[in-house]
Every structure is written in C-alpha cells, then in structure tokens.
C-alpha cells in the first residue's frame, strides 16, 4: 500500500507531502524522457535521405510493363552502353505480352515482349494482354474485362451520388444511437450491465440447448450410421454444444464469484459517462486521432507505392534485365514501415495521455463547475512536457509488433505461426495495457515513462481483484454492448440504403455500415479509455485518502462500493 511519503519520493516533492494536487500543476512539471523524443525526431529525419534516394530512382513507367531487356512498353527507352538490347522505341507497342517461362542458373524468368496489338485469344487489361474469357462481363466475375469493370464502377459511383442523403441520414442515426447508448450508461447503467450479463448467458444457454437437441436428434435417428454425413453433423453439433456449455458455465462461475465487483464496474461505467457528459469535447479526441492516423496511413501508402516502383536496371540472367531494388532501397522500405508503425502508435498514445489528464482533473475536482478546460490543459501539458514519454511508450509497442511479425514470417509451419502469434499477441496486449496505465500516471503526476509504469504496476497489483473484474466482466460488457450497437446501427443503415430504390443500393449500404461501425468504435474507444483512467484515479484515491481525516474525491457510488467491501471483510476472517 502506498503512503504519502512514497508519493513524496515518487514526485520528488520539496514541501509538505500531504499538500499536493492531482493532476500535477504545469508549473511543477518538468520535461520527461527528453532523449526518447530526440530519438523519435532523429529517426524521422534520418528517414528523409533514404526516401530521397529511393524516390529519385522511382520509375513510374514500370506500371506499363517492360520486355526482357527492361525496355518499357509505350515509351522511347534509354540506351545503356553495357546492354545492346536496351534503348528500343516502343512508342507504338503499348501492350505487354507474357510468353513462356525459363530457368537460368536456378532463376525462373518469364518471357515478356511489347506489342502494338494483343495476340488472338487475349485482351488488353491494364496494358497487359491476358487470356480472353467469353463470359467475363458478368458483374462480380474476377475475370471481368476492363471496359465492363469501368462501366460497373461508373454505375456504382452514380448511385452513390444519388444516395448521398441516405449516407448522411445513416450517419445522423448512428450518432443518435451512440448518444442514446451513452445516456443508458449514464442513467440506467445497472439495468444495462445486468441485462447484458444475464442476456448473454441466456442466449448462449439457448444456443447450447439447441445444439444438444440437434446432436441427440441426429444420434437417435434410425437412419444414423457411423461415417456418413449425419455422423459428421452430429459430431459438429456435439462440439458446439460442449463449447456453449463451457462458456455458460465459466460465465456463471465468474459472475457469481465477482458479484460484489460488478458493483464497482457499474459505478465506473456511471462515472465514465458522467465525465464524458461533463467534458463533451472529449468525444472529439478520437475523431482527431482517426484523422491523424488516416493521414499517416495515406502518406505511408503513397510513399510505399513510389518506393516499390524504384529500382536499378540489373542483369538477372543472360540477356534478361529487370529493375531491382538495391540494399539502400530495401533499407528505406523497411525503415518506412518502422517509422509508420512508430508514428501511428505515437498518435494513439498521445490520445490516451490527453484523455487521462482531462479525466483525472475531472475526478480530483470536488466542485465540477470549477473545471476550466481540463482537456486543453492536458494537451498543453503533453506538448510541453511529455512528448518523450509517449515516444518511448510507442517505441516499445512498435518493437514488440515488429518482433512478432518477423518471428511469424520466419516460421514455416502453420501451427508454429499460430503458437507464435498467440503468445506474442498476448504479450503485446499486456505491454499496451501497462503502457496505457503508465501514460495515465504520467498525466496525473508528471513523471517519466518507466517510473510511472512501475507505480502503475504496483497500484494494479495492490488492486488485483478489482483489475481482474474490470478487465474480464467489464470488458465483456463493453464488447457485447459495442457489438449490439454496431448490429443495430448497421441494420438501420441497410434499411435506409434499401429505401433509396437504387440498383446498387448495396454499395450505399456498405458505406453506411462502415460509417456506423466507425462511429460505434469511436464512441467505445473514448468510453473504454475514460473507464481505465477513472479506475486508476479510484485506486489513487483509495490509496492516498481514508474518507475521514482525508476525504475521498470519488462519487457516492464508488464510496458505497468501499463501504460494502469493508462490511464483508470481517465475515471473511
């Protein structure tokens, strides 16, 4: 259990350790993990010359294809003195025709030639002569001709333009459903939590019962014979029946053992909804994050596209030339991937630490009416003092993600890949969990990443039972609620799209469903982050205060949980 003197050491306070504020005031903060911010900037700066070198060797003409000597189809090509076959004028020969394959010194090469017209039996598709299919104009056929594909895309685009109102209406409805869900968590959270828990058990039990019924129906059928199709169906229903039965049993046991902890989960959900209602600008943070992540992804895709078309003309076999990436270009591609992952994780970490600062300010303010732009204060604290903390936290996650991807790619056996992915994905999630809680501690106390992570870990261990409850039952409730919101929003979106009466209404339905899912995911992202922050604030409050000489900052609902916990302690002795 922490004491004020441990907090005194943690924050390096110079005054009365009992006279402190959470979150730490800006004037008392200092820059944290500065060297990791410098490392982050250096990595991005060093990437620039690699990008310049690679982009200078980019050949967009590779999109048109080339013959066996690297001459581009549809262009007048450069002459290289070391290769006599280069420098051909293929201005009139715009199509690439692929011929047979050959092997030179263990290297498989494919014959390529530039032609003015595609040979009989082939059709031009994206400047390449491909075998003709007489039935290739059917929509949805993977071998559809280019002309038919372009026509179909045009029709879909026109229908989407006509159905713009359906997309807008679907977005508005999805937004209203999100706020409705938020209101339920604010005013009827007890009902929502217990309805989801009991309802999930009931639905799974019904599914299990149906599977058991189907299994015995197959098994008792007088036409039933071992080894036939009915035998396989019976085994399938038996597996499903056992699976659903185990899930139901586990849920009942977990909920029964943690029924007292469910009160904490309900209180945390209620407090999270209060915080979002009191600081509504918090809802915009995931929107800004999504925009930045999308922008980062688009930049990464564009750079990768141009870098993939880079290369130097090389002789890979006798009289066979191709544009190949050299060592610097390959390094640039790998460097670009590393930089993209780090930047993306940095943006996500920034979102978390900003939310944590705003929520902790809300939690540790007794009179909420005196809150003065807690999110803006948290943002300025982050940009002035804690950029390096998020840089090191996002670097740790990035390295773990890369190690996981490399080990998976090196594994040859499918089962080995699955085991590696299963183990390392759990380790990665655990690192993310610790990093998020370290960010919360940094937002509250203004301390470096590893120091904050150590304190967060100790807090979580000292509240292990509550942590397990929040991260098992609490996450289960959130997942089910999110799925329900997505299903309802998507269903409404599909009905709105069908109401347009357009030929390709399914395209509008896909867009509407995508918007609905994104809104639901954004809403629950902010809600889950707020719950995590309030839980750490709750742990800090119970650690540093006793409710008597030092009054709690928490709400009456959370105080009631503390009182109930104290009341049952003597019974356990």
Automatic annotation (TrEMBL):
| Xref: Pfam families | Choline_transpo
User: What keywords were assigned to this record?
Assistant: Membrane, Transmembrane, Transmembrane helix
The family this protein is said to belong to: Belongs to the CTL (choline transporter-like) family.
Which residues span the membrane?
36-56, 164-185, 192-215, 235-259, 279-311, 323-341, 346-365, 385-407, 476-497, 503-527
Molecular function in Gene Ontology: transmembrane transporter activity
Record's protein name: Choline transporter-like protein
* Chief localisation class: membrane
**Function (record text):** Choline transporter.
Organism (species): Henosepilachna vigintioctopunctata
**Would you tell me the Gene Ontology cellular component terms?**
plasma membrane
Transmembrane is among the record's keywords: yes
What is the membrane topology here? Multi-pass membrane protein
Does the keyword Membrane belong to this entry? yes
Please state where this protein is localized: Cell membrane; Membrane
Q: Which InterPro entries match?
A: Choline_transptr-like
């Amino acid at each position: 259990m922490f004491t004020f003197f441990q907090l005194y050491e943690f924050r390096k306070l110079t005054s009365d350790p009992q006279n402190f504020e959470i979150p730490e005031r800006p004037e008392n903060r200092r820059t944290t993990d500065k060297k990791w911010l410098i490392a982050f900037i250096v990595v991005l700066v060093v990437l620039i010359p690699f990008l310049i070198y690679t982009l200078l060797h980019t050949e967009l003409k590779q999109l048109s294809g080339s013959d066996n000597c690297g001459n581009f189809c549809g262009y007048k090509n450069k002459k290289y003195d070391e290769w006599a076959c280069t420098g051909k004028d293929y201005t009139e020969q715009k199509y690439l025709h692929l011929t047979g394959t050959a092997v030179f010194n263990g290297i498989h090469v494919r014959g390529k030639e530039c032609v003015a017209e595609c040979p009989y039996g082939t059709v031009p598709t994206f400047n390449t002569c491909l075998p003709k299919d007489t039935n290739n104009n059917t929509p949805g056929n993977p071998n559809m001709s280019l002309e038919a594909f372009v026509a179909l895309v045009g029709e879909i685009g026109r229908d989407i333009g006509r159905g713009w109102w359906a997309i807008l209406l679907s977005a508005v409805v999805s937004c209203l459903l999100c706020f409705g869900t938020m209101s339920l968590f604010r005013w009827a959270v007890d009902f929502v939590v217990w309805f989801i828990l009991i309802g999930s058990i009931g639905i799974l039990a019904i599914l299990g019962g149906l599977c058991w019924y189907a299994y015995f129906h197959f098994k008792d059928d007088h036409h039933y014979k071992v080894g036939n199709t009915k035998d396989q169906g019976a085994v399938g229903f038996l597996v499903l029946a056992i699976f659903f039965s185990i899930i139901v049993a586990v849920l009942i046991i977990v909920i029964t053992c943690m029924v007292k902890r469910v009160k904490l989960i309900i209180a945390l959900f209620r407090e999270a909804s209060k915080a979002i209602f009191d600081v509504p600008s918090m809802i915009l943070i995931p929107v800004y994050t999504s925009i930045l992540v999308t922008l980062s992804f688009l930049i990464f895709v564009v750079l990768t596209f141009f870098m993939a078309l880079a290369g130097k003309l090389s002789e890979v076999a006798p009289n066979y030339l191709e544009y190949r990436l050299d060592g610097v270009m390959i390094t640039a591609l790998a460097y670009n991937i590393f930089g993209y992952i780090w930047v993306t994780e940095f943006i996500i970490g920034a979102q978390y630490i900003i939310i944590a600062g705003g929520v902790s300010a809300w939690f540790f303010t007794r009179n909420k009416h005196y809150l003065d732009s807690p999110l803006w204060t948290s943002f300025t604290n982050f940009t002035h003092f804690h950029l390096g903390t998020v840089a090191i936290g996002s670097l740790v996650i990035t390295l773990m993600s890369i190690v996981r991807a490399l080990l998976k790619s090196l594994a040859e056996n499918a089962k080995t890949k699955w085991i590696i992915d299963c183990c390392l994905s759990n380790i990665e999630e655990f690192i993310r969990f610790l990093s998020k809680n370290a960010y919360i501690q940094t937002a509250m106390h203004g301390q470096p990443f590893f120091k904050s992570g150590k304190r967060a870990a100790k807090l979580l261990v000292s509240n292990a039972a509550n942590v397990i409850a929040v991260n098992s039952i609490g996450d289960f409730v959130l997942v089910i609620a999110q799925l329900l919101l997505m299903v309802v929003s998507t269903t409404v979106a599909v009905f709105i799209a069908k109401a347009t009466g357009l030929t390709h209404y399914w395209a509008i339905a896909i867009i509407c469903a995508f918007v609905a899912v994104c809104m639901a995911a954004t809403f629950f992202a902010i809600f889950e982050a707020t719950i995590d922050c309030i839980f750490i604030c709750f742990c800090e409050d119970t650690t540093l205060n006793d409710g008597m000489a030092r009054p709690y900052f928490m709400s009456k609902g959370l105080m009631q949980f503390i009182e109930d916990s104290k009341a049952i302690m003597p019974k356990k002795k």
